[in-house]
Amino acid sequence: SPALSSAKTIAGPIDVTVYATANRPDTQWVAQVEDVGPDGTSIPLTEGALLGSLRAVSAQGTWRGADGQVLMPNHPYTQASQQPVQAGKLTRYDIEVFPTLATIAAGHRIRVTLSTADTPHLVPTLPALANLVGGVYQVRISPTKGSAVEVPLVPAH
């Protein structure tokens, strides 16, 4: 984000929506939200992760804004909801980032870092690893199917 003109508080769940293509039958996404000071130092605030084959979002339990945008996805994480990633097909991934409460000072920025690993916290199983190895992902940024981040901001007190 640009530098905040006044202090803001992140209060609640965060959704990172990624539209991307991949060359493998699975993807792994990790989204980390950070508070970045004017001098460039960053403090990790929260993160979330998603295995692409478990990207299905259930209507029940998913929080949406008035505009229909996902605020907190509810992934079933069941065998029945599992679906392979189709190579080369533009696919939507909604990454649930753990809810947080953090005040960002004026002059600071909010940064979301998108990566594909968080070792040693997130290690794929051997079957999942076989579908991830050699993966190349291309994230889409466009007006119609653009990747986006929903961060709940309120004025700081």
Please describe the structure with a list of short key phrases separated by commas or semicolons.
157 residues; mainly beta; five-stranded antiparallel beta sheet
TL;DR?
The chain is mainly β and 157 residues long. It is built from 1 helix and 10 strands.
Structure in words:
This protein has 157 residues and is mainly beta. It is built from one helix and ten strands; from the N terminus they run βββββββαβββ. It has one helix at 126-132, and strands at residues 8-22, 28-36, 42-51, 63-64, 70-72, 91-104, 109-115, 137-139, 148-150, 153-155. Strands 1, 6, 8, 9 and 10 form a five-stranded antiparallel β-sheet that branches. A hairpin with a 5-residue loop joins strand 2 (28-36) and strand 3 (42-51). The longest helix is centred in the last third of the chain and has 7 residues, at 126-132. The chain is globular. The two termini are 21 Å apart.
Q: Specify the structural class.
A: mainly beta
Please give the alpha-carbon distance between the first and last residues.
21 Å
Please estimate the helix content. Answer: under 10%
Order of helices and strands: EEEEEEEHEEE
How can the largest sheet be summarized? 5 strands, antiparallel
What would the average pLDDT be, to the nearest integer?
92
